[in-house]
Amino acid sequence: SPTLKELEPRPRKRSRRNDVFEAAILLSSELYSNEFDAMDLARVANVFASNADTATLFLGLGPAVQRAWVADHIDAFRRE
Fold first, then answer.
1. Burial degree of 44 (CB within 10 A; 0-12, 13-18, 19+)
2. Residue 52 · residue 78 · CB < 8 Å
3. 23-66 pLDDT tens trace
4. Residue 32: left if φ>0, alpha if ψ -120 to 50, beta else—which one?
5. Which of 20, 75, 74 is nearest to 51 (CA)?
6. How far apart are CA 75 and CA 62, in angstroms?
7. Where are the domains of the chain?
């Protein structure tokens, strides 16, 4: 029979797809929607959809750094 240690739940590995969804949900929150244009935020979300690793990195940043990252990307889009 399995030991108690074997029955403990193992930490779930992060899913890149879930990170993309979580990052997009965060972008749609009032924190960002009150400050940035919806089309600009959609373009940032598209960055996450194109590169899931970027979404994972974004979620690991602190709130102030996340906001600065979004602002920098939006500025870059506008310069294109």
1. buried
2. no
3. 999 999 998 999 999 999 999 999 999 999 999 999 999 999 99
4. alpha
5. 20
6. 20
7. 14-79
